[in-house]
Amino acid sequence: MKPVLFVRCDRVDTFGIAPSAVEDAGAEVRIWEAIDGIDAPSLDGIGGLIVFGSTYNVEHADEAPFIKLVRDITREAIDRRIPFLGSCFGAQLLAWTLDAEVTKAPMREVGFEPIHPTDEGSADPLVGVWDDGDQGFQWHMDTFELPAGAVLLATGDRVRHQAFRFGDRTWGIQWHFEIDAAEAELWLREFGQAGGDIERDWGKTNAQVRDEVARYMYAHERKGRETFARFVNEVRAAG
């Protein structure tokens, strides 16, 4: 089958479980270092596209030119009906690409928050992995309006729009379904070393987030791996 292209949008991003999950499902992984401003590779011969998180938001598109490069390849994937999956920033960028508004969320989310699939989400090939009340790992301050023609697949208690599908091959998921415990710890450490105060800026302490990781990450990784496996199935079916 054709390889899956990972799009790195942040230098502090290990992709968590994603590489092994995609490879275990039978697909080769290729990586585009978009954050470095490298031109996008050709999508000829690419079976699927996954855009991951970023410390940037789409409002930074003029100061961080890679964002427009990622938007352009996202639009191309949609037009060519290449399966697309966006995580956190990737979901917001997808909504923006589809001309939906991306704004500040009513509150910032960090750590684990409950996910509530809609009826359409429960029947969805990807989001159907997740059950009502499952905990999804969050770290975002923005949210998105639902693009015209999109189907809402999951909601949250604090921030409503958590997942959507556009057509039958394009998904945006707000929570970081790719993260593992090691990456969560890396993000906490990097945030602190950069001078951030997570309790002041995000409303939870490091200890609270680490406690949530200890309680919820095992199940989260299992659901995340199945989400990626199902995406690979979509890539395989698309040819």
Secondary structure topology:
Elements: E1 4-7, H1 18-24, E2 29-32, E3 48-51, H2 66-79, E4 84-87, H3 89-97, E5 102-117, H4 119-122, E6 135-144, E7 151-156, E8 161-166, E9 170-173, H5 181-193, H6 198-202, H7 206-238
Parallel strand pairs: 1-2, 1-3, 3-4, 4-9
Antiparallel strand pairs: 5-6, 5-7, 7-8, 8-9
Helix pairs in contact: 1-7, 2-3, 5-7
Describe the structure in your own words.
With 239 residues, the protein is of the alpha/beta class. It has a single domain (4-238), classed as Class I glutamine amidotransferase (GATase) domain (Rossmann fold, 3-Layer(aba) Sandwich), CATH 3.40.50.880. 36% of the residues lie in helices and 24% in strands. It has seven helices and nine strands; from the N terminus they run E-H-E-E-H-E-H-E-H-E-E-E-E-H-H-H. A nine-stranded mixed β-sheet has the order 2-1-3-4-9-8-7-5-6. Strand 3, helix 2 (66-79) and strand 4 form a beta-alpha-beta unit. Helix 1 (18-24) runs parallel beside helix 7. The N and C termini lie close together (7 Å). The relative contact order is 0.18. The model has no long low-confidence stretch (mean pLDDT 97).
